[in-house]
Design a protein that fits this description.
mainly alpha, 2 domains
Length: 109
């Protein structure tokens, strides 16, 4: 036969501490859920934009492959020029784009 004994103060303290921790964890889980709801629309928009970006990069690679390295380089350079214009402020951006294009298509030449 099992005898039920009264819990000691230490046992009461331990049980109380575990209950407090459990309450704290449950509260934090609810806070996290609320914050996730708050940011869900932005996150899904980000994911959609990232997917579109990857699809467009694949399309660019396919089109460049059809044109060949020389014509693809010229077309991309013309696109950069038309987007950025010839103002002095855009020279660094244009130079970076040219450097990127040369590096990207160097292995195709």
């Amino acid at each position: 036969m099992t005898t039920i004994t009264k819990p000691t103060k230490l046992e009461d303290y331990c049980v109380s501490a575990v209950k407090e921790q459990l309450t704290s964890e449950c509260q934090r889980v609810q806070e996290i859920r609320d914050e996730k709801k708050k940011h869900a629309a932005s996150y899904h928009r980000y994911v959609a934009l990232q997917k579109e970006l990857l699809q467009r990069a694949e399309t660019i690679d396919e089109l460049a492959g059809i044109l060949g390295p020389d014509d693809a380089y010229k077309a991309m350079l013309a696109a950069c020029n038309s987007l950025l214009g010839n103002s002095h402020d855009n020279v660094e951006i244009l130079q970076a784009a040219i450097k990127y294009l040369r590096k990207s298509y160097a292995n195709l030449l």
